[in-house]
Automatic annotation (TrEMBL), chain A:
The keyword GTP-binding does not apply. Keywords: Cell inner membrane, Cell membrane, Membrane, Phosphate transport, Transmembrane, Transmembrane helix, Transport. GO terms for cellular component: plasma membrane. It is found in: Cell inner membrane; Cell membrane. CDD domains: TM_PBP2 (cd06261). The gene is pstC. Part of the binding-protein-dependent transport system for phosphate; probably responsible for the translocation of the substrate across the membrane. This is Phosphate transport system permease protein. Its main location: membrane. GO terms for molecular function: phosphate transmembrane transporter activity. GO terms for biological process: phosphate ion transport. Belongs to the binding-protein-dependent transport system permease family. CysTW subfamily. It is a multi-pass membrane protein.
UniProtKB/TrEMBL annotation, chain B:
It is found in: Cell inner membrane; Cell membrane. Its main location: membrane. The lineage of its organism: Bacteria, Pseudomonadati, Pseudomonadota, Alphaproteobacteria, Rhodobacterales. This is Phosphate transport system permease protein PstA. One of its GO terms (biological process) is phosphate ion transmembrane transport. PROSITE patterns: ABC_TM1. Belongs to the binding-protein-dependent transport system permease family. CysTW subfamily. The gene is pstA.
Length: 490, 448
């Protein structure tokens, strides 16, 4: 039975339990609700909660654990044959799962009977052809080990599913029955239900912790695996980046970090002056009407997805820059070979960051008390002198924080650099040359049919870890600066 | 004394009424500073206008497509040599068998309109999309009685013909093209005059499926739109309840202690983690460890849920905070429990704000691309509509931004137009969602 159906049955049980619990509570006081400890609906809710919550949690955990356990159990069957490397192993296992799924599909469509699928031999039948008939395409012919492992996988998974159905439904029923039996006029149903809800609320709040934990663990485990295969010193201090899946690749992060930093610096050089001056103008000079028009317009830039900026860089800004700085271009310098370059990505990323800098700075400048401006203007300073000598110094920690946040955004930005910056990792000073970044390389190392246990794929996790640490560090640093140097007014 | 000090400055600095050099300088600095501000603002707005112009001017052409209307003689000798009229018999003729028929149809149509051609007959079908054969075959299979008749079909023109009509392809650019040459364009010009070739509204771009690399004229964004839709369902149904529950706990129940601080630090950090890192998380946890199907909208939805949760939690907490304490006090005063006061009074009052925040979070998730690249929602051709709910969640699909990325990566420039057009579709969705959010806020926002 599929998980969806089990969930629906459990929910139906809960709904039935609600009615039953309510009825039983009312019956225990002969219909006079005033003698009940709680409102009748709480008795119903108690039964429903006891029926649904533990059963559904069990269902989710089971669904997560079953494939892992099955893998463990089936793996030894092919372990001796195809193993050798962990990477081979995972490929074979995914083959096994595909064959098992294919057999399921064949049985569903009536091509094979259940018994045939169970007893099929790879030497007597052409498994690959049979499965391609039902729409499951296999990359290679099926070996005897794979087939028998797949059959075992299938048998185990159907046992597992059956067991899951029985156990989950039993838990739901048991919960419903205990709760129904406990329903009585003196049972403190509301307290129990509210306690249960509180636990659920705490559980929801813990999702944030779980997510962080998931990120950190998935990065750390794979990074450690990577450093077991590839020396850490070469990774951190290597000056070349040339992955080749045949082996013998050099995976130095420095060219990638250089590209990331170069692009981010250009982006900030575009975004910070424009964003800051726009914020100053909007908060100090603009009439309410201009402000009401211009501020949302700038924020539209922030709502545009990054893929749009990426395409804009690739197809509009890149060719435009080439026509100016390229061979035979407008400026006649011939610095630029192709449309994808540090300048292209940096410029477009700068545009993306303008609203980020401007709206954060705007908030901070607005938070500077009016009395300080009045004092400065009263002493005879002009408006610009007030801004430069009073408002900006007061707002400086906040503005620095905003710039650091923008920098962390720039370093973590992916789509613009994937489309606009190019693919070659270089240590060069020419901003019109194609370079690449940490994020772009994460994408290129993990997309495609890479084998997840080779250093060339695992390096993406190390890159991800580096990125995570850098952006986290910048964010914490930004918050620290804001807290440490913030002037407390009033 | 007073007379002296009053008279001295006037002798040193001149009259108050006449502007001295220093004041002039300060005023000039003031004007300059203000001009910088206006300049920055104008540059920002200029970028916005440029971006939108680029999108609209490059993308709007994707919504029209060139069609050729052909009188196709469905030759019975070729399609049904035995004259059985049986569907299975006709189905044996593959699309390859129809190319000859199309070549004849093109020649006939040209003859009917008195168009002379310097080209051999074999080169003529290059003007017609490779999808035409499948289109005609499907029509014949749907109605076998058509065999032997002459039927008028509106078939797609090939992407180069389409590009010529849209001004993307010129005679010079075709000089070294193997598929189509300048003579073809002369024919197209004459067919255009004869009304055989025309540009039409291209609904297939919005509803259709992606096509293989060689057929940009056939590609549409419909299937990946469904992929996005299923992902958004997952995001909505997971992130709204979890986000609201987490915010209620943090805002209404959580005691001031280390654990609560820890949760809050986690949430604010997650809000700043680059989206690509969430992709790595999805790849490692959902695909490598849990063995959920790769490229499935379910996995994409789960990753985007984790990414949107901080946004939703932050906005929900803000709107819970804006409900005045007097509401809670009044509810508690008439005997409600803490839980009842929150769920019966505070939550309904905060609902408009929560929904606004959720819609904005969803819009953000809808446009996100980077994590989807890592869980494999690109790199294949999303050509099948999902059949049913389960297949919608579990079968490999793409999503709108991932599809746009995929098109941008392809070599044929005809796909760039599709990518820009896809962006228009995506932006229309985002704009609708944001407008709904703004209307909700206007309609239900309450000032206490």
């Amino acid at each position: 039975m599929s998980a969806l159906w089990i969930a629906l049955i459990v929910l139906a049980l809960a709904a039935g339990g609600y009615v039953l619990g309510r009825k039983r509570a009312l019956a225990s006081v002969g219909g006079n609700t005033r003698h009940l400890h709680s409102l009748p609906s709480y008795y119903g809710a108690n039964v429903a909660m006891m029926a649904a919550v533990p059963a559904l949690i069990l269902l989710v955990i089971w669904l997560i654990l079953q494939p892992m356990v099955l893998n463990r159990m089936v793996a030894p069957m092919i372990g001796s044959v195809a193993a050798g490397e962990a990477g081979e192993m995972s490929l074979v296992m995914s083959d096994v799962r595909r064959v098992a799924d294919g057999l399921d599909a064949a049985v569903d469509q009536g091509v094979l009977s259940g018994a045939e699928a169970r007893d099929m031999q790879s030497d007597s039948t052409d498994v690959r052809a049979t499965l391609s008939n039902v729409g499951v395409a296999l990359g290679s012919d099926v070996t005897a080990e794979t087939l028998s492992a797949a059959q075992r996988y299938r048998a185990l998974s159907s046992t597992g599913s059956l067991l899951m159905t029985v156990v989950v439904l039993a838990v739901a029923l048991a919960g419903a029955i205990t709760a129904t039996l406990r329903t009585h006029r003196d049972f403190r149903a509301r307290n129990v239900v509210e306690h249960g809800m509180r636990v659920l609320l705490i559980g929801a709040a813990c999702f944030a912790i779980l997510t962080t934990l998931g990120i950190v663990l998935s990065l750390i485990f794979n990074t450690v695996k990577f450093f077991n295969l590839y020396p850490a010193s070469d990774y951190f201090f290597g000056l070349t980046w040339s992955p080749s899946f045949g082996g013998g690749s050099s995976l130095g992060i420095l060219p990638l970090l250089w590209g990331t930093l170069y692009i981010s610096v250009i982006a900030l050089a575009v975004a910070v002056p424009i964003g800051l001056f726009a914020a100053i103008y909007l908060s100090e000079y603009a009439t309410p009407r201009i402000r009401a028009f211009a501020k949302p317009m700038l924020e539209v830039l922030a709502g545009i997805p990054t893929i749009v900026y990426g395409l804009f860089a690739l197809l509009t800004v890149g060719p435009l820059l080439v026509s100016v700085f390229g061979e035979g271009g407008f400026a006649g310098v011939g610095w630029m070979q192709g449309g994808t370059a540090v300048m292209t990505a940096g410029l477009v990323m700068g545009i993306m960051l303008i609203p980020f800098v401007s709206s954060l700075s705007d908030d901070i400048i607005n938070a500077v008390p009016q009395t300080m401006r009045d004092g400065s203007l009263g002493l005879g300073a002009t408006k610009s002198e007030t801004v430069r000598q009073v408002v900006l110094p007061a707002a400086l920690p906040g503005i620095v924080g905003a710039i650091l946040l923008a920098a962390s955004r720039a370093i973590g930005e992916t789509m613009i650099v994937v489309l606009g910056a190019g693919a070659a990792a270089k240590l060069s000073l020419n901003p019109f040359e194609a370079m690449t970044t940490v994020t772009a390389k994460i994408v290129s190392q993990l997309t495609g049919d890479a084998d997840f246990s080779s250093p060339e794929a695992l390096v993406a996790f190390a890159l991800g870890m580096t990125l995570f640490v850098i952006t986290l560090g910048l964010n914490i640093f930004a918050l620290w600066i804001v807290r440490k140097y913030r002037e407390q007014y009033e | 004394m007073t007379d002296q000090t009053a008279s001295q400055p006037s002798s040193k600095h001149g009259s108050l009424l006449a502007v001295d050099a220093r004041t002039k300088k300060r005023n000039a600095a003031e004007t300059r500073f203000k001009a910088y501000g206006i300049g920055a603002l104008l540059i920002g707005l200029f970028f916005l206008v440029t971006l939108l112009t680029a999108i609209v001017s490059n993308g709007s052409t994707a919504f029209s497509q060139t069609y050729i209307s052909l009188d196709v003689t469905l030759n019975a000798e070729k399609l049904d040599p035995n004259g059985t009229g049986d569907r299975d018999e006709i189905a044996k003729v593959t699309t390859l068998g129809y190319t000859q028929i199309i070549a004849e149809a093109v020649a006939n149509t040209m003859a009917a309109n008195e168009i002379e051609s310097p080209l051999p007959a074999g080169a003529l079908p290059l003007m017609v999309s490779a999808s035409a054969a499948a289109q005609i075959r499907d029509t014949v299979l749907a109605d076998p009685s058509l065999v032997g008749q002459t039927v008028t079909f509106n078939v797609l023109a090939s992407s180069r013909v389409d590009g010529y009509l849209k001004g993307r392809v010129t005679r010079e650019s075709l000089a070294r093209d193997r598929n189509l040459g300048p003579p073809h364009l002369d024919i197209v010009d004459q067919m255009l005059d004869a009304g055989v070739v025309e540009k039409r509204w291209n609904l297939a771009f919005i509803t259709g499926a992606d096509a293989s690399e060689s057929r940009p004229e056939q590609a549409g964004i419909g299937v990946s739109m469904l992929g996005s839709f299923f992902m958004m369902l997952v995001v909505l149904f997971l992130s709204l309840p979890i986000g609201v529950a987490a915010s209620i706990y943090l805002e209404e129940f959580a005691p001031q202690n280390k654990f609560t601080d820890f949760i809050e630090v986690n949430i604010s950090n997650l809000a700043a983690v680059p989206s690509i890192v969430f992709g790595i998380l999805g790849l490692a946890i959902f695909i490598q460890i849990m063995h959920l199907p790769q490229s499935a909208p379910l996995v994409g939805g789960l990753v985007l849920t984790l990414m949107t949760l901080p946004t939703i939690i932050i906005s929900t907490r803000a709107s819970l905070k804006s409900v005045p304490p007097s509401i809670r006090d009044a509810a508690l005063g008439v005997g409600a429990s803490k839980m009842q006061s929150v769920f019966h009074h505070v939550l309904p009052l905060a609902m408009p704000g929560i929904l606004t925040g959720t819609i904005i979070g969803l819009a953000q998730a809808l446009g996100e691309t980077a994590p989807l690249l890592l869980i494999g929602m690109v790199g294949f051709i999303a050509s099948n509509y999902p059949d049913g709910l389960a297949s919608g969640f579990l079968d490999p699909n793409s999503a709108m931004p991932a599809q746009i990325y995929e098109w941008a990566k392809r070599a044929d420039p005809a796909y760039y137009e599709r990518a820009w057009g896809g962006i228009i579709v995506l932006l229309v969705f985002l704009m609708t969602m944001n407008i709904i959010a703004i209307l909700l806020r206007r309609r239900f926002e309450r000032r206490w």
